[in-house]
């Protein structure tokens, strides 16, 4: 049997996971309940499994359009953040150049900048660039705001790569740029996957930025589209819950795919450990 | 021809001068060993020869060609690092062939050369493994394989054996010596282990604080050290270095005599002392003695000798094996 210490740990873990799992299940199950039942028993199993709302949503072309828009914006944000963030961080980690400290600290200032304060100038800039109502209008500001933290994490990760690895590669004829493609990136899958997941989920759930930048219904993300499902006359929470549950799936799939790579110890065997 | 010629090299990191002014010739096909205490600049010197570190002043030529500012890969050198620095995401085959691949060598030739190196180092069955699936000794061999496949003129080793256990170190020492005679290349080898230096070197270079103390063949350094530092560094157990009246009597500042060059007797001799501790190694017996005027001395006697801590003994330095280091840096032997 379990020891006291072990039992305590298991109970604690169960408690913590229930904090996450219970609301999630309630959301998914809520989509099967009637509005009346939702009010009385928000957490229990549905008395009657009503497939109407899930059916309607999954059969709705507009839903798939919202989903696609969100997906496109999130993927573009992830790819751009990874490419720019890793290259930038590599320069900070590997190359000693004049003003690198100043530049890095300047970038870190971006971490402290409150997003809300930037809304007005951001809107004007995006408008002047002529990318309002396009995915870019959301993607570029998201990348801009995500870069500071991703550069910081990338740099920390790159900096702990054994220095002799670069020396050995140089003796073999490898320059800075080749080293980045042939060593730094392949050896950085854990941090790439971590940052990708984080950026993806943030973009997937972003509401404020799409609200400001997207006016055309066709370009709406699911967070904006959610309004459609509240019902015309009364708030139909079951429909909303079904909608939210349906939008969770892609984020979960992305997370599961990335999780496989979020394992440390990939540099094992490079140097005597 | 791959003589390495270092002329007037200076290396300064910021405001710290690590190597003030160093000149050295490493003869073609020699096995030269750089030794010295930790932090004396051995790695720095090796890295400057490799081109991984810029010289602050001076010049370096390899095989008559000035490479002072050449890229590491253009110098005709290969280097084996203390940490091995294997590429963790590549197989052994890819690790060994990587330099050739970057040099755009045809695939068939890469394969042939990797196989040849694997043959020399007995790496054949391991070619498809990743570094983390190898033992320490196997990793070391891969690192060596990676260097020989490029057919360099000069091999550079930075303490390649220091991560291995004693038995493996002895075995690899022999393998490296064999490799040297097989490849007939110039090798420069950094270590702070004087046994490695003595057993492997054609030429030993002893450094201290960025300055070369003496260059020579192992037995020359053993028999005729230029100064007390070299005398104490080469040989194990260390040479006895005696200061004070005993040295002054012979007109020297320091009198040096090796533990194996002292004869002991229970009843008569030049110096009297009391045994503090005795080590019985079978092949010899090493005694640590507190002598009356000379201070702490180490004595080595061949074979098994019956001596015990607390006994009084008499010691006589053997004629012809006494090194007298004078104040002005000159040496005489008596
Ligand atoms: N990049 C650097 N910046 C500043 N100082 C350095 C740098 N690299 C080495 N040094 C200094 O240069 C001196 C010589 O270092 P080096 O690594 O050459 O010593 P070493 O003889 O190889 O020692 P060990 O036997 O411990 O490896 C040391 O005092 C070290 O602190
Ligand atoms: Mg060193």
UniProtKB/TrEMBL annotation, chain A:
Compartments (UniProt record): Cell membrane
ABC transmembrane type-1 domain residues: 67-258
Gene Ontology CC annotations of this record: plasma membrane
InterPro entries given in the database record: MetI-like, MetI-like_sf
TM stretches of this protein: 12-32, 71-92, 104-124, 136-158, 179-201, 240-258
Keywords from the named record: ATP-binding, Cell membrane, Membrane, Nucleotide-binding, Transmembrane, Transmembrane helix, Transport
Main localization of the protein described in the UniProt heading: membrane
Family from the record: Belongs to the binding-protein-dependent transport system permease family.
UniProt name for this protein: Thiamine ABC transporter ATP-binding protein
Species whose genome carries this gene: Actibacterium mucosum KCTC 23349
Automatic annotation (TrEMBL), chain B:
One GO term describing the cellular component: maltose transport complex
Entries under Pfam families matching the protein: ABC_tran, TOBE_2
Superkingdom of origin organism: Bacteria
InterPro entries, per the entry: AAA+_ATPase, ABC_transporter-like_ATP-bd, ABC_transporter-like_CS, ABC_transpr_MalK-like, ABC_transpr_MalK/UgpC-like, Mo/tungstate-bd_C_term_dom, NA-bd_OB-fold, P-loop_NTPase
CDD domains listed in its UniProt record: ABC_MalK_N
Keyword Nucleotide-binding in annotation: yes
SUPFAM superfamilies assigned: MOP-like (SSF50331), P-loop containing nucleoside triphosphate hydrolases (SSF52540)
UniProt keywords, alphabetically: ATP-binding, Nucleotide-binding, Transport
GO molecular function: ABC-type maltose transporter activity; ATP binding; ATP hydrolysis activity
Keyword check for Transport: yes
SMART domains: AAA
Positions of the ABC transporter domain: 4-234
Family, as annotated: Belongs to the ABC transporter superfamily.
PANTHER family tied to this protein: MALTODEXTRIN IMPORT ATP-BINDING PROTEIN MSMX, MALTOSE_MALTODEXTRIN IMPORT ATP-BINDING PROTEIN MALK
Protein name, as recorded: Glycerol-3-phosphate ABC transporter ATPase
Organism: Actibacterium mucosum KCTC 23349
């Amino acid at each position: 049997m379990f020891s006291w210490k072990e039992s305590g740990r298991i109970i604690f873990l169960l408690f913590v996971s229930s904090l996450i799992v219970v609301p999630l299940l309630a959301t998914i199950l809520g989509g099967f309940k009637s509005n009346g039942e939702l009010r009385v028993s928000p957490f229990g199993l549905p008395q009657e499994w009503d497939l109407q709302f899930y059916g309607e949503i999954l059969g709705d072309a507009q839903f798939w359009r919202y989903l696609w828009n969100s997906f496109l914006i999130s993927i573009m944000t992830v790819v751009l953040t990874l490419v720019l963030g890793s290259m930038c961080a590599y320069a900070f980690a590997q190359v000693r150049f004049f003003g690198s400290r100043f530049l890095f600290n300047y970038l870190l200032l971006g971490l402290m900048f409150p997003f809300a304060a930037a809304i007005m100038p951001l809107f004007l800039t995006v408008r002047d660039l002529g990318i309002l109502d396009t995915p870019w209008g959301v993607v570029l500001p998201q990348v801009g705001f995500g870069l500071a933290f991703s550069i910081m994490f990338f740099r920390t990760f790159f900096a702990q790569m054994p220095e002799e690895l670069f020396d050995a590669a140089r003796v073999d004829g490898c320059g800075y740029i080749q080293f980045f493609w042939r060593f730094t990136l392949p050896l950085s899958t854990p941090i790439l996957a971590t940052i990708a997941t984080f950026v993806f989920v943030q973009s997937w759930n972003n509401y404020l930025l799409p609200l400001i930048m997207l006016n055309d219904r066709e370009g709406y993300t699911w967070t904006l589209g959610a309004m459609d499902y509240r019902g015309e006359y009364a708030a139909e929470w079951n429909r909303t819950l079904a909608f939210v549950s349906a939008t969770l799936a892609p984020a979960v799939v992305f997370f599961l795919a990335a999780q496989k790579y979020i394992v440390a110890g990939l540099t094992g065997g490079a140097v005597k450990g | 021809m791959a003589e390495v010629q270092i002329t007037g090299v200076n290396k300064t990191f910021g405001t710290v001068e690590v190597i003030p002014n160093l000149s050295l010739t490493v003869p073609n096909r020699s096995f030269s060993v750089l030794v010295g205490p930790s932090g004396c600049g051995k790695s720095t010197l090796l890295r400057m020869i490799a081109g991984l570190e810029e010289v602050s002043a001076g010049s370096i030529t390899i095989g008559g060609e000035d490479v002072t500012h050449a890229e590491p890969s253009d110098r005709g050198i290969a280097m084996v690092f203390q940490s091995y620095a294997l590429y963790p995401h590549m197989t052994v085959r890819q690790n060994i062939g990587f330099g050739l691949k970057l040099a755009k060598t045809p695939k068939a030739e890469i394969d042939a050369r990797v196989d040849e190196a694997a043959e020399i180092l007995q790496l054949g069955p391991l070619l498809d493994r990743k570094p983390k699936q190898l033992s320490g000794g196997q990793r070391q061999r891969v690192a060596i394989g990676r260097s020989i496949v490029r057919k360099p003129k000069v091999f550079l080793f930075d303490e390649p054996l220091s991560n291995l256990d004693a038995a493996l170190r002895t075995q690899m020492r022999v393998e490296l010596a064999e490799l040297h005679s097989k490849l007939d290349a110039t090798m420069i080898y950094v270590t702070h282990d004087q046994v490695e230096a003595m057993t492997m070197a054609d030429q030993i270079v002893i450094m201290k604080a960025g300055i070369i103390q003496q260059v020579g063949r192992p037995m020359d350094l053993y028999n005729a050290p230029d100064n007390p530092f070299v005398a104490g560094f080469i040989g194990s157990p260390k040479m006895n270095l005696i200061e004070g009246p005993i040295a002054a009597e012979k007109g020297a500042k320091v009198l040096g005599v090796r533990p194996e060059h002292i004869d002991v007797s229970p009843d008569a001799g030049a110096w009297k002392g009391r045994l503090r501790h005795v080590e019985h190694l079978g092949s010899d017996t090493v005694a640590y003695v507190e002598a009356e005027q000379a201070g702490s001395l180490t004595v080595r006697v061949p074979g098994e000798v019956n001596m015990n801590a607390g006994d009084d003994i008499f010691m006589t330095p053997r004629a012809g094996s006494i090194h007298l280091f004078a104040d002005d840096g000159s040496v005489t032997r008596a």
